[in-house]
Structures are given as structure tokens and as C-alpha cells.
DUF5082 family protein
Amino acid sequence: MSEERLRSQISSAEGTLASAREDLQRLQECRARLISRQSTLDSAKSDFKEPELTADTWHGEHATKFDDIRDSGIVTPYDNLADVKVPEAIDQVDARIDQTNNLITQQITQLDGLKDSLEKEIKED
């Protein structure tokens, strides 16, 4: 392979590697933000069930309807977000981080091979 072609391939591999490292940084920042949001959601869960309706605070048909709406319209979707959707998003980001790490490893291996080939090409000339 020609020296010029090897240098071009090295340049391309270095660009791909730099881009993958930037992607990895963004994914790690995203993961950290998701975990922070998950913590915030978990700590606020009990707030949606307040005030608890008792015979002393509010009772009757309207209180029952309110409690039903609160449970089905607020608490259940919130729990789904906090307990299902955010963890799923974290899992997806983790999978993407793994893919990106694998790409980085492959690019480093390819880059090392290209650099070795270039050194051999230079020595032969």
C-alpha cells in the first residue's frame, strides 16, 4: 500500500476515533443527567400523594373522585416515568456507551495497524 494511502487512512481513522470519543463524552454526560433526574423523581414521589385524604381532611364522593384522578392521572403515570421510562433510557444509553467503547477499541487497533504499516512502508523506501 502506498505511503499516501496509508496516511489518508490514518487521518480518517483518527477522525473517526475523535468523533467516537466526543460521542462517548456526551453519552456519559447524558447518563449522569438521567441518573440525577431519576434521583429527583424518586425523592418527589411521595409529594403527589399528599395530602392524604382521610375522614378528617376530606371525604365523600368528590374526595373519592379526586383520589381516583390523582392515582390514575398523576401517580400512576409518574411512577411509570420514574420506575420504567427513566431506567429504560439509562439502559439504552448504557448500551450505546458499550457500542461506542467497542468502536473506540476497534479504531485504536486499526490505527495501530495502519501506523505500523506506514512505518514499514517508510523503512522500505
In short: The CA atoms of residues 43 and 86 lie 14 Å apart. The mean pLDDT is 91. Residues 3-124 form a domain with the Helix Hairpins fold (CATH 1.10.287).
